[in-house]
Amino acid sequence: MATRRIELMLCAGTGCVAGGAFRIKEALDSEISRHGLQDEVIVVPTGCNGFCGQGPLLVVEPEKIFYSWLKEEDIPFLVQEHFLKGRPVKKLMFTPTERKEPIPLLGEIPFFKKQMLLVLRNKGIIDPEQISDYLARDGYVAVEKVLTSMSPEQVIGEIITSGLRGRGGAGFPTGVKWKICRSQERTPKYIICNCDEGDPGAYMDRSVFESDPHSVIEGLTIAAYAIGAARGYIYVRSEYPLAIRRIQIAVQQARDYGLLGENILDSGFSFDVEIREGSGAFVCGEETSLIHSIEGLSPEPRQRPPFPVQSGLWGQPTVINNVETLANVPVIISRGADWYSRIGTETSKGTKIFSLVGKINNTGLIEVPMGVTLREIVYEIGGGIPGNRAFKAVQTGGPSGGCIPASLMDVPIDYESLLQAGSMMGSGGMIVMDEDTCMVDVSKFYLQFTNDESCGKCSTCRDGSEALLEVLTRITDGHGREGDIEFMEELGHAIKDASMCGLGTTLPNPVLSTITYFRDEYEAHIKEKRCPAKACKELTSYFIDPEKCQACLICMRECPAESIYGEKNVIHVIDQVKCTKCGSCFDVCPERFAAVVKISGEPVPFVEKGRLIARKRKQAEGVA
Amino acid sequence: MPMSHNHRNSPLAMPKLTIEELRKEREKARKGIYLREGEFRGKIIVHMGTCGIAAGARGIVSTFLEEVEKRAVKDIAVTTSGCAGLCSREPMATVELVDTPPVKYGDLTPEKTRKIFAEHVLGGTIVADYAIGVGSEKGG
Predict the structure, then answer these.
(1) Quick check: is B80 in a domain?
(2) Which fold has domain A6-109?
(3) What mean pLDDT is reported for chain A?
(4) With 60 as the cut, is the pLDDT of residue A2 above it?
(5) Residue B38: what pLDDT?
(6) Which CATH code, of 3.40.50.300, 3.40.50.1000, 3.30.70.20, 3.40.120.10, is assigned to A537-619?
(7) CATH T-level fold of A351-434
């Protein structure tokens, strides 16, 4: 192998692949060989880089120059200029919205600068399909350490000392879970890796599988050794084809190297895993449903206790850990519990991966130490809200979580503070909302989701979600009634009290937390039939301001319902009866006119048809 | 479908990989990714403007890379940049070691390149015979 001088770390996570990363790889390969650079410059496909909003993207090693928004047609120029002649191409670099000059280096982009990578320590640096890349980054050092110098009790002690808590949502101390399972006398025992990530907008676990699958296998092996399991299961939803392929490859490579299988590293310890694909029912993320699904039964939860650590898969003691939890384990073992426990807050140690999406400039996957504030996430890493609009809230924890309002922006984020705010850590989805987001509508969206996904076993969950959804739909349709808020509060608490599994006990959270922080929005919908965010269709009308309309005909041509009247020099008027409120006119009206406005809670002003426009600028200049 | 739970009482299978072998694999693998780990003691910049390429800069890059590989050097990056503005002295290269001013070399040949690599890049002594200048040009 000739020595390379440049490595192109091409993001091949799901987002960038959808954006054409593999086509870009082909283009790169062919241009590189056209210039005869194939021995010096190579393309390395990696897992998710995290800065998904900028994809398809590429990091040039060794300088770590970051290129974003790549298109196939950019590639010939890029290869010739940068990789042959050594002149980095500015126009393909990342430029933050508030700046004119691009930032060439990955390490200087604010999105990356504030992050702390433990779980994602190898993202973008290794080819996830090559075990050698993982080995080169101290891969399987932790397994080596555990199998040669630690007893299972010592491993458990180390994990307890580290303060690691489950990253799937509830935050149960991982070491304690392992300890309880170890103390069970019955064998065999099982370990399960839960990659049934179902929250809308969340893709942390998928990215770990896609960027560093061996770290999960290593964590699983250590967990199996600690609890005394010889067999493990990786449960992953079939909607994640790329993640499944990479974990399959990784498992096979680990077997080929003898890092899974019998007598691992001549230690006498044997362990192997099986991959199970779930069909993507949200309830399967709940551990007893997940167990039923692996057993081939209908995925419905069952009453706990007994907990899975006592009686889980096929009635045997079973530990279920989330992907991110397991990927933390090798780091803790290699670097020590003391080192790890210095990161984070009093009760929540280490880092957390969040998927940062919604109304935010820098969309992507971030890993930050526990205790970071929402302000840091939204304004420093996230680069603020597009169009300088006002930040309203962040939804965390998916359909089980709630909304954290702007007023709590400076609260350090950990398991406890989020619970106290009426939300939860959940698996780490973070959806940013601005002033244009209606909180009632958001609650409705989540209730639609949980109502769909309720398995139907408990009536409180099945019918309770239906009843909540019905009321929310009524409110957003403008038929809210006095007493609706109080009814939802009462019902919400009843659902929490009476449902069996996590899906039911948390599904009222989006409603309850938005009532707590945004009660005025609910009241405006109910009492004034007004949507303050002007987002609820039934409560909002579009209106063309006759003083501003310049009769440019654009909205008329765009209107799919043909509901706009007017002609050249005659101001345009929307026929409110024909208007379907699709918002096209609002979107296409040129910014310098801004004549189309949204109106809610008040009647649409009358404008006589056929009125001539007043061209202000020309009049002022005296040019008729 | 439950897995078979029969535990073998037979002697343990031979391991596929011993600890020593794993460590060897890891060392071997490290060579494959050193470019990405990012701690470099210095870099060699070969000027690859049209003039440089015409004068044989590609061969100079290859020679430096061969040296890097032959001597298993891991803390030196070989990169390229555009024309240095002194086209009559191409092929040219700049050697930048951490905490020392960059040195520009001109009229390079593979032999000169190997000598610069051995004496300056590895040994720390500037090869005065081939050096054109020391330090960066002042910006205007």
Answers:
(1) yes
(2) Glutaredoxin (3.40.30)
(3) 92
(4) no
(5) 67
(6) 3.30.70.20
(7) Ubiquitin-like (UB roll) (3.10.20)
- Percentage of chain B beyond pLDDT 70 is 87
3-state DSSP helix/strand/coil percent for chain B, to nearest 5? 40, 15, 45
CATH number at residue B108: 3.40.30.10
Q: How buried is A490 (Cβ within 10 angstroms: 0-12 exposed, 13-18 middle, 19+ buried)? A: exposed
Yes or no: say if A307 and A314 are a contact pair by the CB < 8 Å rule: no
Q: Return the number of other C-beta atoms located less than 10 Å from residue B36's C-beta.
A: 21
Mutation target for A interface from B8, B10, B34, B36: give the one with most A CBs within 10 A.
B36
- Enumerate the residues of chain A whose CB falls inside 8 A of the CB of residue B38: 61-62, 64
Locate all alpha helices (DSSP H) within A35-173, ordered by sequence.
75-78, 110-113, 131-136, 141-149, 152-162
Q: Does A87 touch chain B (CB under 8 A)?
A: yes
Q: How close is the nearest chain B Cα to the Cα of A33, in Å?
A: 14
Chains A & B: contacts with CB separation below 8 Å: 128
* CATH number of this structure's domain A439-527: 1.20.1440.230
Shortest alpha-carbon distance between residue B127 and chain A (Å): 24
Nearest CB partner across the interface for A136, out of B29, B65, B79: B29
Does the beta-carbon distance from B19 to A263 stay under 8 Å?
Answer: no
All residues of chain A having their beta carbon less than 8 Å from the beta carbon of residue B31 are 136
List pLDDT tens digits, range A568-581: 889 999 999 999 99
Backbone angles phi, psi at A219, to 5 degrees: -60, -40
The residue length of chain B stands at 140
CATH tag, A131-341:
3.40.50.11540
pLDDT at residue B1, rounded to an integer: 39
The nearest CA of chain A is from the CA of B130 a distance in Å of 23
Closest CA of chain B from A88, distance in Å = 9
Q: Which of A3-12, A147-156, A548-557, B98-107 has the highest mean pLDDT?
A: A147-156
**What ipTM goes with this model?**
0.80
